[in-house]
Amino acid sequence: MCPHLPPLFFFNPTLLLPVWPVCFFPPTLSEMKEKNPWHTPVTIIISVIGVIAIVALVTVAVLQNRPLPKKYKYGIVLDAGSSHTALYIYEWPAEKDNNTGRVQQKHSCKVKGPGISSYASAPLKAGESLRECMQEAKQWVPEKRHHETPLYLGATAGMRLLNMENSAASEKVFGAVEETLQKSPFSFQGARILSGQEEGAFGWVTVNYLDDRLKQGLETTGALDLGGASTQISFVSDQFDGSESLNNSVTFRLYGNDYNLYTHSFLCYGKDQALRLTLAHQTQSGPESILDPCFNTGYTSTRNYSVLYDSPCVSDRKPQNAPQTFTQQGVGNFQECQEVVKKIFNFTHCKYTRCSFNGVFQPLLQGPFGAFSAYYFVMNFLNLTDTSISLDTVKAKLERYCATPWSQVTQQHPDTKVKYLAEYCFSGTYILTLLTNGYNFTSETYSDIKFIKKIKGSDAGWTLGYMLNLTNMIPAEAPDTPPLPHAGYVSIVTVMALLLFILFIISLRPLWPRCSKQPQII
Ligand SMILES: O=c1[nH]cnc2c1ncn2[C@@H]1O[C@H](COP(=O)(O)OP(=O)(O)O)[C@@H](O)[C@H]1O
Ligand SMILES: [Ca+2]
Question: Which residues form the active site (predicted)?
Fold first, then answer.
C-alpha cells in the first residue's frame, strides 16, 4: 500500500471504508512496516462524515426533485361538423396545466352517420348517434377522473345553416344531444353553435399551440380550415390592427404576447355547399341534363332538384318549372371547371383597401399557413401535399386527374368512398380557385401553405383551441419557470458537493504525510 497519497473513498454499499490507491512508487519494506499517518482516528472520522454528508446531500437533491409519478387530467370536445361529428379526448399532466405544448390528443372517435344537422326531422337520432363514441370515451378516461372531465359540444356551419333555416328544429337537435351528453359520467359543460369567428380563431390557436409558437413568442402560422359548409382563414398580418374591419379582428394576450388576429369564416363556401353553389350556377335554366367539367369523363348521376336546392345557401335560386331531376354527365376538364367555380365568387365590389371576395376585407397575406380538414383530405388523395410542388405542377396534375375516365378512377381506388371519389376533381379545383382567386395566393406565396392533418399527434382543427380557452389553460402572462431543469439541478449539486469534498481534502494538506524517499527510477 502507498503512504504518499491520501486514501480515496470508494463507495461500498455496506461499509464506507478508506481504500488506498495503487501507488506510483512501490513502497519499501520499512515503509510498509511504518504506521500509516493517515490512519489517525480524527482523519478517518472526518473523512467518513464528509462522505456521508455528500452522499446524503446528493440523495436528498435527487429524491426531492425527482419527477412525481405522472397524473393526468382529461377534457373531451365533440366537433359537430356539417358532414359528421367527431369526439376528441385530450390529456395533460395534472400538476402543470399552465405549460404550453403539454395538452395532447389521446384518442378520437368518429361518430357513425351524418352530422347532427342532418337529423332535423328525427332529432332523437342525433342524440343516439353519439352514444357509441361516448361509450368509447369512458374506456379512454380513467374512471376516477370521469366526474371531473369537462365535456363540450361545439357545432359549426351545418347547425348554423339549420338554425337559419329552421331554428325550432335546431333547438330540438340540441335538446336531444344535450340529453345524451348529460347522461354521461363526464362533467357536461354545454352544447352550442360556434360563431364563424370563434371557429377560425380557435383553429389558429390550435395550430400555434401545438407548434409551440405561442409560448416562445415566435412568428405565428396562419390557419386555413375547409369544412363541408364553411371555410375559415385566420392569420396575423403586421398591417392589420383591426381598425379597418372590426368584425374580422380577434385580439388575444397569450403568454405575455399580444396578437391581433385577422379571421373570416365564409358560410356556404365549405366544399359541399360550394358544390351546390356551382351546380346551382349550372342549373339556373332548370335543364334535364348538364355536362359537368368538374366530374370525371364517363361519370353520370341523377340529381334531385329539391335535394340540391334544399339549403339556405342556394334555396332562393331554385329554378321555377324545373323537372324533378337532372342528369349530371362528367366531361372532366380542369380549365372549364375552374371557370364555372369562379362564378360562385363575387369580385366586383370592395369598400376596403383590399378584399378577398364577396366584398370581404382581407389584409395582405402573411405566411406561413397550415391548411387542414378537407384541404388535407383532398390534397392528400391527389398526392399534392408535398410543399415542394409548384402551383403550376399542382394545376397540371389536377388537369390530368380531372381528365381521367371515371371507370379508370374507380378501378384504381376500389376502397375509396364513391361520393368522395367522384368529387375530388371538383374539390381540388375548388381548393385551387379559393386559394388563388379567392384569397389571392400567388405562384410565389402558394409554397407558404403546408397541408396538414396532425401536429405532434393531435388533429389540426378548432377543438383543442376551444378547450384550451374554456379551461383557461393558456395564461395571458408568461408563467414563471424554474431556472433549471431537474437534471441540471441534480448535476450542479453533485459537482458542487464533489468540489467541496476535494477542497476539504486539500485543506487537510498540513496533515498529509511527506514521502521519505525520492522516487526510484527503474
Ligand atoms: O376522406 C375524406 N375525403 C374527402 N373529404 C373528406 C374526407 N373526410 C372528410 N371529408 C370532408 O371534410 C369536410 C369536413 O367538414 P365538416 O363536417 O367539418 O363541416 P363544417 O366544418 O363546415 O361544419 C366535409 O366536406 C367532408 O366531406
Ligand atoms: Ca369542421
Answer: 199
